[in-house]
Amino acid sequence: MDQIIVQILNGLDKGSAYALIALGLTLIFGTLGVVNFAHGALFMLGAFCAVILSKILNISREVLVEGETDFLGNPLMRDVPVVYDWFGEAAGAAIIDWNVPLAILFSIPIMIGVGFAMERGLIKHFYKRPHADQILVTFGLAIVLAEVIKYFFGANPIQTPAPAAFTGSLDFGVWLGFDPLTIMYPYWRLVYFFFSALIIAGVFAFLQFTTFGMVVRAGMADRETVQMLGIDIDKRFTFMFGLAAAVAGLAGVMYAPIVAPNYHMGMDFLVLSFVVVVVGGMGSLPGAVAAGFLLGILESFASMPVVVDILPGINQIIIYLVAIIILLTRPRGLMGRKGVMED
Questions:
Q1: Which domain of life does the UniProt lineage start with (predicted)?
Q2: What is the distance between the alpha carbons of residues 79 and 92, in angstroms, rounded to a whole number?
Q3: What is the dihedral of CA 257, 260, 265, 266, to 10 degrees?
Q4: What is the per-residue pLDDT across 248-280, written as a single tens digit (0 to 9) for each?
Q5: How far does the chain reach from its first CA to its final CA, in angstroms?
Q6: Which pLDDT band, with edges at 50, 70 and 90, does 54 fall under?
Q7: Which of 3, 47, 181, 240 could form a disulfide with 261 if both were Cys (CB 3.0 to 4.6 A apart)?
Q8: How many CA atoms lie within 13 A of 175 on its CB side?
Q9: Is 0.70 surpassed by the pTM of this model?
Q10: Does domain 2-57+92-329 correspond to CATH entry 1.10.3470?
């Protein structure tokens, strides 16, 4: 039972990332009708926002340590982060330690700006082009962004630790009545799950309960009628592209302590996220979220040693097998709508 609980927790952790990326993908497809293969690159850029902020906060200057010398007898110098001069040593150290949560605020305007630039500079020219053209151009953009990151940050992963308060593991089993130390789970992975749930709930609440969101949902259902009412739906859809980019970026920021950011992490998640979108149903936001958590949990259980011993390699293909089964039985996905990508 303890192993089952651990695998469920692992599945919720993976599913959180899948669901957030798939949610952004579905927002873009549902509003603009664009199949955006550069969305995984936005996830990567979000992770590197945390890296960039970390480098900025750790900019330092050399200061003389009075009364001390090195082994050659020269005056001893040490690097002191400039942030210490601005906020004091204690507050400066805390700011550096909480780099990843602070990167949330740092990344939001950056990712929204990147989303606007992508949509206005490139994507808008492909609205009426075939989906194959959209896939090719956005996939090419993803490769370009990955190579840019590789040029500036190198090919090796860059460690971006979580705050010290969230290092280590929680004795999760005690809460469920197990013996102490039976089920230990990393604090930050739990934080990531709750953060993802908060972002997903926020997006759904925005679309469901705000006037802006209601107009967007109406535009997703019948764009021409909304335009006839005198509403500039195109501007609202552009904003939604920026919102989708921000969602992907936030997913990347908070994932940085779990998997060290590297230039190809966007590609690693891209294909899986598209499978999640297709399984959930193209254009269905609830379907994308449900499929993300479902496939994450299935992948986690397929990675258990007892399962891998019986079916070697099943953990690598389980998501695709489930996708095949679902699409054979429900061609539109779990919650897909009639007429979406069927023309």
A1: Bacteria
A2: 14
A3: 40
A4: 999 999 999 998 999 988 888 878 888 888 888
A5: 47
A6: very high
A7: 47
A8: 7
A9: yes
A10: yes
